Model the fold of this input.
Amino acid sequence: MNSNKKTKISYDLESDVLRVEISKQPIDYAKEMGNIVVHFTKKGLPVYLEFLEAKRFLTKTKKVLEKARVPEFAEKPA
Done:
């Protein structure tokens, strides 16, 4: 992966969609996998991700990271 390229992340509050652009390559097709839509190149490489119902996805992700005791997400003592 080229370190000069930056992943672009955006969030649309109105539609509750988190978008992640991981490549600038042309998109050929998309495949919906549950609440995630993955856009691919002709060669099948992922280019763009859309997380539908993003708040729910991020809440679940945070809980999984807390349970795994990932330091940045571990619950802080009161």
Notes: The chain has one domain: 8-67. The beta strands are 8-12, 17-21, 29-33, 36-40, 46-52.
